UniProtKB/TrEMBL annotation:
Record protein name field: TRAP transporter small permease protein
PANTHER family linked: 2,3-DIKETO-L-GULONATE TRAP TRANSPORTER SMALL PERMEASE PROTEIN YIAM, SLL1102 PROTEIN
Purpose of the protein: Part of the tripartite ATP-independent periplasmic (TRAP) transport system.
Keyword check for Protein biosynthesis: no
A Pfam family this chain is assigned to: DctQ
Organism: Vreelandella glaciei
Domain of life: Bacteria
Domain Tripartite ATP-independent periplasmic transporters DctQ component: 27-158
Family recorded in the similarity comment: Belongs to the TRAP transporter small permease family.
Lineage start: Bacteria, Pseudomonadati, Pseudomonadota, Gammaproteobacteria, Oceanospirillales
InterPro entries: DctQ, TRAP_DctQ
Main location: membrane
Subunit-structure text: The complex comprises the extracytoplasmic solute receptor protein and the two transmembrane proteins.
Subcellular location: Cell inner membrane
Length: 182
């Protein structure tokens, strides 16, 4: 039971990264195979570009959710930087709450859009993939964005760091150690 809980915790904590890795790996492999098939064997793969586009859409949306999870999304804190520390915290929480509500709003309407696309039964032109499958990824990514914003608010109100630290590997070459001899 403990191992199952550990697995679910890992999946929840790294859901976005797992989806992004799968999509990016799929894009690279599919595009490589499509290029080889087209230019070496003169047999193009129908729909390869369409599937790669869908994977790119999912990767970018789930990547946005991962950015919210680690506080690596874009922002312009010009006014907030001028506030005292206690007011800045309140301002940041307010912006985070508004962002969470906005993503919850988008999640609700993407859920409705997903239901509509399931009822209509539309399929993609080149591969025949049901469009609702693509829309399910949009719904999932927006839902995760709102969840990550709400989690950051809860963590802040509990006195914890809002965002977990970004995982770092010691084997990655960074700008700081480029000049160092390995």
């Amino acid at each position: 039971m403990h191992q199952l809980k550990k697995l679910f915790t890992f999946i929840f904590n790294h859901f976005e990264e797992i989806i992004v890795i799968i999509c990016m790996f799929g894009i690279v492999i599919l595009t490589f195979i499509a290029v080889i098939a087209r230019y070496v064997f003169r047999m193009p793969i129908a729909g390869a570009d369409e599937i790669a586009t869908y994977m790119f859409l999912w990767a970018s949306l789930f990547g946005a959710s991962a950015a919210f999870k680690y506080n690596k999304h874009g922002g312009v804190p010009l006014l907030a930087d001028m506030l005292p520390a206690n007011l800045r915290r309140i301002s940041d929480l307010l912006v985070l709450a508004l962002t969470a509500v906005f993503f919850a709003f988008l999640t609700y309407y993407s859920w409705r859009f997903l239901g509509q696309s399931m009822r209509v039964g539309q399929t993609s032109p080149a591969t025949g993939i049901p469009v609702w499958m693509v829309n399910a990824g949009i719904f999932g990514a927006l839902a995760m964005c709102s969840v990550r914003c709400f989690v950051a608010i809860i963590r802040d109100l509990r006195g914890m760091d809002r965002y977990p630290t970004v995982p770092v590997s010691n084997s990655i070459i960074s700008e700081e150690n480029l000049d160092k001899k390995i």
